[in-house]
Amino acid sequence: MRVVVTGAGGFVGRRVARIFRTAGHDVLGLSRSAFDGRSLDDVLAGADVVCHLAARVRVRESREDPLGYWQVNLGGTRAVLAACPPTARVVIASTCTVYAPSDAPIGEDAPLDPASPYAASKLAADLLARDVAGSGGPGVVSLRAFNVAGPGDPDPSRVVPALLARAAGATSAPFRVNGDGSAVRDYLHVDDIADAFLAAADTAEPGTWRAYTVGSGRGTSVADLIDTVRRVTGRAVPVEHGPAVVEPARLVADPARIRADLGWAATRSDPERIVADAWIAR
Question: InterPro entries this protein is in (predicted)?
């Protein structure tokens, strides 16, 4: 198959492009910096599968630049869908932040409540994909991923790279923990989300749209993740505690539907494996 990956220069996009190549497919990668809507018709004309990962993804930044986030995240998705042949299978990188926070495991039927311009723009892209598919367009699967982490993550604003930078001595500033570190999150190995793209490509039937919640189903507190980094690296991680902030106490996926429909499972997403793989790859 001919596979086009937008955002192929990014953390997740690189792994998605690699897994399709490993599976024997002809892969064309487009980086977000080279993403040009005027040339997409030619680029996507012969595509069998399109994996759309070109996006802006920082929640705090989106509040400072909502117009830019909507332009890239919704506008870019519109351009891709408009250029895709109707026979193509499209897999979109979406986000769990489209859902309302809940202490219960979050699945596809959870209420939607995007609380940032980033989340809102990604939900709008999902809904556009639903409507385009429903009008006879390409089949689309939206993968609503939890906290992707692991080897190759260059973003120091995310928790695993930030902790490893301190373990490596790349910065002497202590890692700031809000409150007591009891907030629980679901961490997903980058190679597990890449596997989900490969599995979803086989099921994106033309004229249909589906969304899947993609996570490990396992919760890890910030305090436990810090201890894991110390244990795996054998290094000290300086920490300072600040006041607690208003945030969900627990955000964990319910991946039952993607497991049942696609046979996918997060086989690498225990925290020790994520930290060890990221540490080795530094």
Answer: Epimerase_deHydtase (IPR001509), NAD(P)-bd_dom_sf (IPR036291)
- The pLDDT-based confidence of 35 (bands split at 50, 70, 90) is low
Residue 256 lies in a domain: no
DSSP for 172-190, please give it.
Answer: -SPEEEETTS--EE-EEEH
What are the structure tokens assigned to 219, written together?
A: 């919760």
99 is a catalytic site residue:
no
The span from the CA of 25 to the CA of 17, in Å, is 9
Tell me, yes or no, whether 157 and 139 share the same domain.
Answer: no
| Annotated catalytic residue within 69, 99, 118, 187 | 118
- Domain assignment present for residue 51? The answer is yes
Per-residue pLDDT tens for 208-255? 999 999 999 999 999 999 999 999 999 999 999 999 888 889 999 999
Q: And the tokens for 41?
A: 């018709």
In whole angstroms, what is the distance from residue 115 CA to residue 63 CA? 10
Using a cut of 0.85, tell me whether the model's pTM lies above it. yes
The per-residue pLDDT for range 40-72, each reduced to its tens digit, is 888 999 999 999 999 999 999 999 999 999 999
Domain membership flag for residue 262: no
* Domain residue limits at 158: 150-185+218-251+268-280
Residue type at 273 in one-letter notation: R
Phi, psi for 278 (deg, rounded to 5): -70, -40
Strands 220-221 and 184-185: what pairing? antiparallel
Same domain, 129 and 247: no
Assigned domain for 31 exists? yes
State the total domains in the chain.
2
* CATH number, domain with residue 246: 3.90.25.10
